[in-house]
Amino acid sequence: MQTLPTIESPIKSDFNNFYYYSQVFSNDEISYLEQMVHENYTFSKGKVGTVELGNLDSSVYNNRDIAYLPPNNDTKWLYEKLEQLVVQANEALFNFSITNVTDLIHYVIYPENGGHLDWHMDIGKLGVNRRKLALTVQLSDPSEYDGGEFEVWFGGKDEFVEVPRQKGDVIIFPTFLMHRVKPIIRGQRKALVFWTGGEPFR
Fold first, then answer.
1. I need a surface site. Which of 50, 106, 126, 134 has the fewest CB within 10 A?
2. How buried is residue 115: exposed, middle or buried, by Cβ count under 10 Å (0-12/13-18/19+)?
């Protein structure tokens, strides 16, 4: 009689979800961060996906201003804090093989009258194929702007989930989930974006 193959018990993971921290950044931390960025860094228009390869019109897919924050003495605390949040979320929910930070921290401003980011994934080819977990920090109070809802799509016709967005909130989710930021109508939305990963999924 032929021996049947052994079926391993599944690892307890939930890829169809996001991990949420409530107001983990204080108002003082956010104010310090905002001052540091505006005094020491410049902003440029953001790009997405194959826009970086010159294949798409960036303005159709997004309208964001981004400052890129490298690891240094001023940002060391921020990198360490975000890394700790990722480790905890990954152990609790995703169980990915995470070995490194894949990108510089992005400080993002969605400007008034149309700041947005269309449906996309945070993983793809070439430079972004090692991203596994995306992290977003909400830096603006929701009373400061209208529109700008952050939605994640979990499949199905109407399965768009609006994530929490109180000032100081943090969400972490797999980079292969489709998500978007709807157009800003009034004010501006500010956020940090951070990615970690390792060897490509296989």
1. 126
2. buried
Q: Would you state the structure tokens that stand for residue 103, as one six-digit string?
A: 């990108």
The whole-angstrom separation of Cα 15 and Cα 95 is 9
Q: In degrees to the nearest 10, what's the CA dihedral of 18, 88, 68, 197?
A: -80
Handedness of CA 29, 83, 173, 48 (dihedral sign): positive
State the residue for tokens 């001052």: 35
Which residue in 186, 51, 184 sits closest to 120, CA to CA? 51
Query: pLDDT digit of tens for each residue in the chain (202 aa)?
Result: 566 665 555 556 788 889 999 999 999 999 999 999 999 999 998 866 544 444 444 545 788 999 999 999 999 999 999 999 999 999 999 999 999 999 999 999 999 988 999 988 999 877 788 999 999 999 999 999 999 999 999 887 777 899 999 999 999 999 999 999 999 999 999 999 999 999 988 8
Distance CA 176, CA 103 (A): 16
Token pair for residue 16? Answer: 């169809």
- pTM for the whole thing? 0.87
Do 98 and 132 touch, CB atoms closer than 8 A?
yes
Could you identify the residue written with the tokens 């109070």? 141
Q: Give the C-alpha separation, 170 to 193, whole Å.
A: 10
Task: Please identify which residue in the block is written with the tokens 């269309």.
Answer: 118
